Amino acid sequence: MGVGVIVNQIMVLFLLMGLGYGLARSKILDKSACDKLTWLLCYVVMPCLVFNAFQIPYSPELWHNFMLVGGLSFGIHMLFIVMSKLLLNGKALQQRGIAEQMQFTAVYSNCGFMGLPFVVALVGSNGAFYGSVYIAVNGIFVWTHGLLTHSGRLDRSALIKVVLNPNTLAAIVGCIFFVLSVHLPTALHDAIGHVGKMNTALAMILVGAAMAPVRIGRIWFSGMAWISVFMRNLLFPGVVLLALLALGISGDMLIVVTALSACPVAGMSVIFAQLTGKNTEFPVTSLTLSTIASLATLPLMLTLSTW
After folding, report:
1. Rounded Cα distance, 245 and 229, in Å
2. How many CB atoms lie within 10 A of CB 291?
3. Do the beta carbons of residue 206 and residue 270 sit within 8 Å?
4. In this predicted model, what pLDDT tens digit does every residue of 9-29 receive, in sequence order?
5. CATH assignment of the domain containing 154
């Protein structure tokens, strides 16, 4: 069942990307439209998705698991950041202007679109809860470290903007609401949920639109992109699996955290390149190759975790 879910999610992803690609090639989606939709995605849709992940009933057991998964997720992202800095910060990469993009593609996975439906299909409600916590932590890192990695600015005004970013605020408020058992009125909750559900389709359409200027036949020969695929799909999640086993993590939590850390390159790698005015060819190439490779690597990591 797990492999079938992976294949299905990848097919959906590519169909949505294909729609965006076709719309851009036919000039229906031009640069101006893509820029506006990118803003809508990053500052309206994604905050709704992050906030809604915390709208669940509170209990002491859930709080314990929340803290444990949150701590593991935080540690995993810190480990990935350190590894990416050590392995992907050479002069050759800096000269080619892709060091920061390679670091981002190695650290951040497509845990929201591919990961959450996958772990829910595998372990049910536990997958939804653990996955939501992981995704929330991932969102905080994406909109702090990830954004600063692309912008290259660490000045005071940039840090203030990061702290006040709608995605960061949504995660903080959502966490407070969970702890205090504050639940929104049904109509408001459903409205936010509907907006958040736009995330997958809108993000993948924009990624597909960004692929329009890229020559698809050339992506198979990008050595740097294949290095990113190896880091994101195998090396980094492999280290996570060994660390989780060493810590005595088992059962559903082990499967969920391993699977989410082993998802392919995040679509935000392309979105951030667009937001910061950088070339999107490398992140698009890495995203495409990583997603294709995940047909084999994600079932492999899952099999190792179940052993």
Report:
1. 24
2. 24
3. yes
4. 777 878 888 899 899 999 999
5. 1.20.1530.20
Residues whose CB falls within 8 Å of the CB of residue 112, separated by 6 or more in sequence, listed in order: 49, 135, 138, 199, 200
Residue 15, strand partner residues: none
137 φ, ψ to 5°? Answer: -65, -40
CA-CA distance, 281 to 88, in Å (whole number)?
18
Torsion of CA 36, 40, 46, 49, to 10 degrees: -140
Residue 2: its pLDDT value, please?
A: 54
| Assigned domain for 120 exists | yes
> Of how many residues is the chain composed?
307
Give me the number of domains the chain comprises.
1
Judge whether 90 lies within some domain: yes
Rounded Cα distance between 166 and 172, Å, is: 10
With contact defined as beta carbons under 8 Å apart, do 54 and 178 qualify?
A: yes
Q: Which residues of the chain have pLDDT under 50?
A: 1
**Sign of the CA dihedral running 197, 202, 203, 208:** positive
| Residue 36 lies in domain | 2-302
Amino acid at residue number 232? R
Please indicate, yes or no, if residue 307 is contained in any of the structural domains.
no
From CA 272, how far away is CA 291, in angstroms rounded?
18
C-alpha span between 237 and 125 (Å, rounded)? 23
